[in-house]
């Protein structure tokens, strides 16, 4: 493990300048400070300093996910994380990121500079700089619904296989045979899992999979209008959606086309956001317990900080049956 | 939630008799006590009483797994569990079970009677009474390597997909093409996972799967002699084993047949038990961090007790390269 002396030697500067850089003292240039921090990260000094800090500090970095309002997906996740953190005497900073911040500074440097010993990353895409840097990070990091092979990185999520299976079984019990899947964006691990889960479940209940009844949209309501027509013309009597937002778009599009839910077509969502109860008809959906996701993310982060290399932690989903599903029409 | 009054009413006895039964007072018959406890469990009274107990108590129930010696699979798991429990001020009882105990008393009744608010079950088979009762339990329960759909039951394990993939990649890099799998006992979730992981990994590296090179043994050394001959006559140059004990049997059988490891045939294990370092040649294997498994089991149990419905928690395995693997012979 590198010492302050090693860093000073490598940069050809004094030990006191390194110390000032690491501690954020005001009398050295910002440029020098950045160089000291980057070198400290490179030489593996990071964790040592973090260990010395008395109060443990972690952060939630949020990119591209709404979380400020209780109706939004991220809200309860952040609440759950903070609940667990408070009980374990750990301070949490919630930091919305932006392109400027992500490109200006490396992830590990950001963490070291701010004295964070771990982070929960929410809403990042695979091509984001911080996500790509995770292959080599030494910082304990938890992702939502995304896998990284690095031993310091784990992920939390909801068991989508179990969830999709419950939805398909529910529709099967109602006599549906032609079941469509409107999935989320491509290039997402969750989207891929839900597709495989759909194929597996259809097989389990001996239902035929029609490629015309499987499509990728995006995780927004708007994507429904591109696919619902095709599903209908291929005889779908039920549409399984990869999120509640997609399902809300599907219900609207069905209404626009004069198709009744659930009399003509049943619809299921995924997430159980508050809107699921307010849609008309109310939405049958697969519940992700978001408070529990947040709590689990924190306990996982704590274990990763302590050197327990958790790969993944999946919660049990729950099927919430409401009014958007019903018997298959004759 | 049922009250003491409800239990008294149901059994047609006085409230004070119910109270004596629940608290283990000496002046009622053992038969009456058992009836009170069984009724309390049936009526969902259990968790309420447990909540009232000041100090939290959990147990590890061990069936058919050796744990008393550091060389044995269960030892470090128990150590890891206790380490986490102590840090969280929770008392742990380690209880080896026996057929008598398992048949005499229901799982939930046993837990209530002894004031345990959760249990970690080690080494049980799917047909054991306690495992079958888990479908309906209200007691927070963690299993090693076994799934149950009940929301109060979760499982910890090591990511076998990742592990087997690393072993196959390692052999592939050494030029092996005819790779055999000597798996564990049938009817085990882990055995099934390892078979699927093997098929997936072979496919990933474009290696042909030969059904003659896949066999189920048992998780003991002795099973090797039934399969190694068949593997050799079908041209295997590498044998991936589902445990270190199986691998030790395979190495002995190869020696007996005059085949050199790794010059003629490479062998890999799974677990990284202490014996892996003492075999000759030392064993290349997929490490399960058993202390971390125990620690994870405890934090999972704690979350289940708190109502967070964790389905599974998987650790990252590690490939430990030693002397039992080498380049594929010409």
From TrEMBL, chains A, B:
Keywords assigned by UniProt?
DNA-binding, Transcription, Transcription regulation
Query: What Gene3D superfamilies does its record include?
Result: 3.40.50.2300, lambda repressor-like DNA-binding domains
Q: Which SMART domains match?
A: HTH_LACI
HTH lacI-type domain segment(s) = 2-45
Entries under Pfam families matching the protein: LacI, Peripla_BP_3
Q: Which GO terms describe its molecular function?
A: DNA binding
For whether the record's keyword set contains DNA-binding, the answer is: yes
Task: Write the protein's name.
Answer: LacI family DNA-binding transcriptional regulator
Organism annotation: Caproiciproducens galactitolivorans
């Amino acid at each position: 493990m590198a010492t302050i002396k090693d860093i000073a030697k490598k940069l050809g500067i004094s030990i006191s300048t390194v110390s000032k850089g690491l501690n954020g003292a005001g009398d050295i240039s910002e440029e020098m400070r950045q160089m000291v921090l980057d070198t400290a990260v490179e030489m593996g000094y990071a964790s040592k300093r973090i260990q010395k800090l008395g109060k443990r500090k972690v952060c939630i970095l949020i990119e591209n996910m709404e979380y400020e309002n209780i109706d939004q997906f991220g809200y309860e996740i952040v609440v759950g994380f903070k609940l667990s953190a408070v009980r374990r005497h750990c301070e949490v900073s919630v930091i919305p990121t932006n392109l400027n911040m992500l490109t200006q500074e490396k992830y590990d440097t950001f963490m070291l500079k701010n004295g964070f010993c771990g982070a929960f990353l929410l809403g990042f895409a695979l091509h984001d700089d911080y996500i790509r840097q995770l292959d080599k990070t030494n910082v304990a990091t938890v992702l939502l619904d995304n896998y990284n092979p690095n031993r310091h990185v784990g992920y939390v999520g909801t068991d989508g296989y179990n969830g999709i299976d419950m939805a398909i079984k529910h529709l099967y019990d109602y006599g549906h045979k032609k079941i469509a899947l409107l999935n989320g964006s491509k290039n997402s691990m969750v989207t891929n899992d839900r597709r495989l889960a759909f194929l597996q479940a259809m097989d389990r209940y001996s239902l035929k999979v029609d490629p015309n009844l499987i499509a990728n949209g995006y995780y927004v309501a708007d994507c429904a209008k591109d696919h619902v027509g095709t599903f209908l013309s291929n005889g779908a009597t039920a549409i399984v959606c990869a999120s509640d937002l997609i399902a809300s778009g599907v219900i609207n599009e069905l209404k626009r086309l004069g198709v009744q839910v659930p009399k003509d077509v049943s619809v299921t969502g995924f997430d159980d956001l508050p809107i699921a109860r307010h849609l008309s008809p109310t939405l049958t959906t697969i519940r992700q317990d978001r408070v529990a996701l947040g709590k689990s993310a924190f306990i996982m982060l704590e274990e990763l900080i302590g050197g327990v290399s958790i790969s993944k932690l999946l919660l049990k989903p729950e099927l919430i049956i409401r009014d958007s599903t019903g018997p298959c029409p004759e």
